[in-house]
C-alpha cells in the first residue's frame, strides 16, 4: 500500500494537570492510498501508549489493553458510533479530489537570495539561495557566475519537508566578489516550464515584504481551516 500523502489533525482531548500528569491525545487521519481509496484512522493515546484505534479498512475498533478491549467491544456494538465512523470515512473520501487534483499539482517555489558573511571558508562572502514551499520534492538548484554554471564552493541541503506537503531547500555559494559580476541561482522544478533564474541584485526589501505579507495571509487561512475542522469534528462526535 502506497501512501501518497495525508492530512492530519491533532486534537488534545483530555489533560489532567497534576504533579504526576496523565496525558491523553487523539489523532484523526485520512490516509490517501490511491485516487479511489482512503483509510480513515482514529487513534487514541494515553500516556503516549496507543490505547485504541479505529481503522476504516478493518471496520472495527481495536483496544490495546484490558480496559481498552472492554471499551472496544462496547463501541463495536454501538450503532451510533459505527454510523459516525462511517460518516468520518465518507468525509475523508470526499477530500480525495482536493488531495489529488489540487494539492498534488506542482507548486512553484518562492525563491529568496540572501547574502551572508562566510565563516572560516576561503571566501569572505556567501550567497544563500533558498527555495520555499514547493511541491513535489524533486528540485534542482544551481549557480551561474556571469552566465556560466559553477560547481565549486557550492553546498546544498537536502530537500527538507515542512510537514505540510511542501518542501524547502537551501544552496550555498561561497565567493569573493569581483566587480561587475552577475551571480544567479537557477531553479529547475516540475512547476516551471523552463529553468528560472534569480539574479542576486534583483532582490530588494520590497520583494521581501511581499513574501512576508503573503506568508502571513496563508498562515491565517490555514489556521482558520484547521480550527474549522476541529470544530466540525467536536460537534459531530459530541
Ligand atoms: C488497517 O487495517 C488494514 C486491514 O486489516 C491493514 O492492512 C492496515 O495495515 C491497517 N492500518 C493500520 C495503520 O493499522
Automatic annotation (TrEMBL):
Q: A GO term (biological process) for this protein?
A: immune response
Recorded GO cellular component terms are: MHC class II protein complex
Principal localisation: membrane
Q: List where the protein spans the membrane.
A: 211-232
Q: Does the keyword Transmembrane helix apply?
A: yes
Topology in the membrane? Single-pass type I membrane protein
State the compartments where it is located: Membrane
Ranges of residues in domain Ig-like: 109-191
Q: Which UniProt keywords apply?
A: Disulfide bond, Glycoprotein, Membrane, Signal, Transmembrane, Transmembrane helix
Q: Does the keyword Disulfide bond apply?
A: yes
Signal sequence interval, chain numbering: 1-21
Q: What is this protein called?
A: DLA class II histocompatibility antigen, DR-1 beta chain-like
Source organism per UniProt: Stegastes partitus (bicolor damselfish)
